């Protein structure tokens, strides 16, 4: 049995992993999907959110050796957490996720890539401390291959996301690089272009990158297939 800790991306919460958790448990594994600060039972104000705080939340969930999985923006906090609890991470798995480049924030990385479908897809809060995705754009960007009722439920659950963690670079990523890592590249992703995903892992061994023909949200559209990929090479 393997323990999986699952970390959601921007504007999402632990709820998005429900079907994957069920699929992993059917395979005999243990799971914990966590909420990052500023959602769920955590009422941290967006203006007080930090990438360090997000990483500490992930590290607390790593109470014993586990596979650490991050989707989308969560590539940043799981990479940061690797420096805090490297001995408790059996493997890092990035699912259609940003792979931090040393010294560059997520915002820096996104601006540097010429094709950015997320541009114009969000609305800033009045104090500029958080953003939310435009509901009319969320479904085609994130859930285009999901059943209509699943996509509608996901859109209704989206929450504001703090800006500061996305503007914070990780000085160095040596701890994460030293760990076993895998990447699940979503080939029909309309949020993070597949070519951008491929560029972020271009120096990784070919065997560390697997492709899944889904949108940005395989945990909703193909949870069983995603669970099967997560279980490979344990």
UniProtKB/TrEMBL annotation:
Top-level lineage group: Bacteria
Pfam family, one: Abhydrolase_6
Region forming the signal peptide: none
Domain AB hydrolase-1: from-to ranges: 4-228
Coiled-coil residue spans: none
Record protein name field: Esterase
Organism: Haematobacter missouriensis
């Amino acid at each position: 049995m393997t323990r999986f800790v699952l970390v959601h991306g921007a504007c999402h919460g632990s709820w998005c992993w429900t079907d994957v958790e069920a699929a992993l448990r059917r395979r005999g594994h243990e799971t914990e999907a966590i909420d990052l600060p500023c959602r769920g039972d955590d009422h941290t104000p967006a203006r007080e959110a930090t990438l360090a705080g997000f990483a500490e939340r992930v590290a607390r969930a790593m109470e014993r050796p586990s596979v650490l999985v991050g989707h989308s923006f969560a590539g940043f906090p799981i990479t940061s957490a690797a420096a805090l609890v490297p001995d408790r991470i059996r493997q890092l798995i990035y699912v259609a996720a940003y792979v931090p480049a040393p010294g560059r924030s997520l915002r820096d990385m996104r601006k540097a890539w010429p094709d950015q479908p997320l541009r114009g897809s969000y609305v800033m809060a009045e104090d500029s401390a958080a953003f939310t995705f435009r509901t009319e754009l969320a479904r085609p960007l994130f859930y285009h291959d999901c059943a209509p009722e699943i996509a509608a439920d996901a859109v209704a659950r989206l929450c504001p996301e703090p800006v500061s963690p996305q503007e914070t670079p990780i000085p160095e990523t040596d701890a994460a690089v030293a760990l076993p890592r895998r990447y699940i590249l979503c080939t029909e992703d309309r949020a993070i272009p597949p070519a951008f995903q491929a560029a972020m892992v271009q120096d990784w061994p070919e065997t560390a990158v697997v492709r899944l023909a889904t949108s940005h949200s395989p945990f909703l559209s193909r949870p069983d297939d995603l669970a099967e990929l997560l279980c490979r090479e344990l």
